[in-house]
Amino acid sequence: MQNTIDQLLLAANQIILGKQDKIHLAVCCLLAKGHLLIEDIPGVGKTTLAHTLAKLFGLHYQRIQFTSDILPADILGASVYDANNHEFKFHPGPVFNQMVLADEINRATPKAQSALLEAMEEHQVTIEGKTYTLPSPFFVIATQNPSHQIGTFPLPESQLDRFLMRIELGYPDPKAERALLNGETRQSLIEAQSVQLPPEQLLPIQQAITQVHASPALLDYCQAVINFTRESPDYPCGLSPRGGLALLRAAKAWAFMDKRDAVIPEDIQAVLAAVAGHRLRAGSSHSETIVAPILEKVPVH
């Protein structure tokens, strides 16, 4: 299994250049059954990364361009009257795919943003009193522009909490940018890639990750991190129980990717910024800075 994951990471790094750590986090997020939020300025490869992951995982994929006038029905679907049968027939929206790219999600109004809440948490949607189950696996990858840019509606904390991780890509380093300028277009490279980890192989891996061992000492450290966020004046609101579970789930996936069957404190530290940054301070995009006091002050048990 791990060899397949290594091949997937290698293929992704050939498309998204110079961002090995961010790609590792993004793959970790999907293996942990989580949704991913990518926040950065336009043009640094957010959408390209989503396309790359969809292709390498072999997932049925749909992109939704969020705008200020998008409606919940544009995301979930709607019932349309069938004159021949004299009844309303439900037409599924783009959310009924294994991977949904919510592009520039914070350009939509809160009403449209909230249409994804039930889908992300329950893997189902309820429309006109009827519940519809979404495909398995089901992932949402959302991109958003920094909140200071024109025409954005900040995501509320309740929706941010649905994302297992938030990452920022940033500018490429000079070597990666030169390779980008000299190379083929990213779209042609994506199209040339083959599926590395199809859904029928992904589901057993996700199940195996839940069996990764977390010792009592490791759980002590995890709880110390959680309690620090609740007691420190640095944070307006500490990690919730759901946030703590998300941290442990991501750490298990990180350990699995590192070919280990038990979590160590370094796994918690590796995923902490991506898992906790947006939960501790929603308005900031510098997750590493947000969690720096935790890494500095919470001793490893």
Structural write-up:
With 301 residues, the chain is of the alpha/beta class. Strands 2-5-8-1-9 form a five-stranded parallel sheet. The chain has a two-stranded antiparallel ribbon with strand order 3-4. The model has no long low-confidence stretch (mean pLDDT 89). A hairpin with a 2-residue loop joins strand 6 and strand 7 (130-133). The chain has 14 helices and nine strands. It has two domains: 1-191, Rossmann fold, CATH 3.40.50.300; 210-301, Magnesium chelatase subunit I, C-Terminal domain (Helicase, Ruva Protein, domain 3, Orthogonal Bundle).
SSE order and pairing:
Layout: H1 2-15, H2 20-31, E1 36-39, H3 46-57, E2 61-65, H4 72-76, E3 77-82, E4 87-92, E5 99-103, H5 110-113, H6 117-122, E6 124-127, E7 130-133, E8 139-144, H7 157-160, E9 165-167, H8 174-182, H9 186-192, H10 199-210, H11 216-231, H12 241-257, H13 265-280, H14 287-297
Parallel strand pairs: 1-8, 1-9, 2-5, 5-8
Antiparallel strand pairs: 3-4, 6-7
Order of helices and strands: HHEHEHEEEHHEEEHEHHHHHHH
Q: Briefly note the CATH topology name of the largest domain.
A: Rossmann fold
Please tally the helical runs, counting DSSP H or I stretches of 4 or more residues. Answer: 14
Kindly provide the name of the CATH class of the largest domain. Alpha Beta
Number of domains: 2
As a percent range, the share of strand residues is: 5-15%
Head-to-tail CA distance between termini? 31 Å
Q: In angstroms, what is the radius of gyration? A: 20 Å
